[in-house]
DNA sequence: GAAATCTTGGTTGTGACTACCATATGACTG
DNA sequence: CAGTCATATGGTAGTCACAACCAAGATTTC
């Protein structure tokens, strides 16, 4: 790795950390981008080159966790779909559990600030849509002509992706509300059991 | 109704209509609030009094459809929960089907403009959370001590609300993509059938 | 018709974000 | 090592969404 890349990572980290400090101390709305830039000892122009919007400063970590797991899933070989979704969920939860403080802070900021909340939900929504595409691909490639309870592949994929997203959101929410008494992955596993039970017509083998 | 209220409704409508015209013609980002105010022949101050943000101009209709149905549901007597959720879904879809053009325009604008998309998902997310609260209330009041497959009431409520939201989103999405060939309510009814089938442990009688 | 109340439009200010340019700094070549 | 090339940086100027405030006009109420 060249010196250039190294410095870039360092600067990015520095800006992000200083931003979180200021957000925690003074709130999102009461912190200006110029203050963050000054704290990180860079010009505002530079800051904007790394983080196109103020909200990105907060949400980059969550977004990386989500889309990292999705990228991983895309490279997995065809696999039993419920198992696949469960492993995606666990991968996301692993990432988030690695930085509990950041997760809590993000949730706190989202609760207080509408624009953060809006960008957070938008990222989750975008993630769900991309997961839908991937599931459609796997379902279509797999089932030559399965009835799927009379519904189309797109419909099933969208529903499965939506429920996957719901499980992640709900388990994380409960974990944030009660950090000590919650085993996130166990909770997600139980939730998945409900879905395997039969109601949602996930074919036993997806692709 | 006094003259004051009448004028207020008229002005609100006028601003909203002009805004949609401009958004359709020139796009969301290329239209300034001042242009909208000028087109509606009011001052920018007045516009901001009616619509606190530029995005509200676009999303008020969707938000009214969602939360109107929720308000209605809150006033319903205890009822079989799957039936209740299905009627909520149908109520939302009825509202949206009443203005197909607006719905399509909103989706179009959301697709093109990140900030509109963000505010749209945030509104949907907020709606789901309020539905979760209402479902929790009904479930708690009903079941003296049902096992609920080992999960808490909150968890079941959140999952049910999430799935309800998913069904609405998916059916509307498919309707927007293919306006002619989709019977939204029939689609939603079929989706609900899947859930009644057993996988999601909605108790047969909620409250 | 007068007083109280609400609505309006304008003014000023802040802060996020864009476009642009000159300078500095690490990277590669002879 | 010197030179040049590509990229990163910081600063400037400008746009636009939005908040706070205030004076004038319209509506309602007595």
UniProtKB/TrEMBL annotation, chains A, B:
Which residue ranges does the Swiss-Prot or TrEMBL entry mark as DNA-binding?
Answer: 32-51
Could you tell me which Pfam families the record lists for this protein?
Answer: TetR_N
Q: Does the keyword DNA-binding apply?
A: yes
| Keywords (A to Z) from UniProt | DNA-binding, Transcription, Transcription regulation
InterPro entries on file:
Homeodomain-like_sf (IPR009057), HTH-type_TetR-like_transc_reg (IPR050109), HTH_TetR (IPR001647)
Domain of life the protein comes from: Bacteria
Domain (HTH tetR-type): give its ranges.
9-69
Protein's name according to its UniProt entry: TetR family transcriptional regulator
This chain's source organism reads: Kribbella alba
Q: Which taxonomic lineage does the organism of this UniProt entry have?
A: Bacteria, Bacillati, Actinomycetota, Actinomycetes, Propionibacteriales
């Amino acid at each position: 790795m060249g010196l250039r890349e190294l410095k870039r990572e360092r600067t990015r980290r520095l800006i992000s950390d200083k931003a979180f400090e200021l957000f925690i101390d003074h709130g999102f709305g009461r912190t200006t981008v110029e203050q963050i830039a000054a704290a990180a000892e860079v010009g505002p122009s530079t800051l904007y080159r790394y983080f196109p919007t103020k909200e990105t400063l907060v949400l980059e970590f969550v977004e990386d966790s989500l889309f990292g797991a999705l990228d991983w899933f895309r490279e997995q070989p065809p696999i039993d779909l419920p198992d696949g979704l469960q492993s995606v969920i666990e991968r996301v939860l692993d990432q988030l559990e690695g930085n509990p403080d950041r997760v809590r802070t993000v949730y706190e900021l989202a609760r207080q600030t509408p624009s953060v909340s809006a960008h957070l939900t938008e990222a989750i929504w975008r993630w769900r849509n991309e997961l839908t595409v991937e599931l459609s691909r796997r379902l279509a490639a797999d089932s030559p002509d399965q009835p799927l309870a009379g519904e189309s592949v797109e419909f099933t994929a969208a529903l499965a992706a939506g429920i996957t997203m719901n499980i992640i959101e709900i388990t994380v929410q409960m974990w944030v509300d009660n950090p000590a008494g919650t085993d996130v992955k166990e909770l997600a596993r139980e939730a998945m059991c409900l879905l395997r039970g039969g109601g949602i017509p996930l074919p036993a083998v997806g692709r």
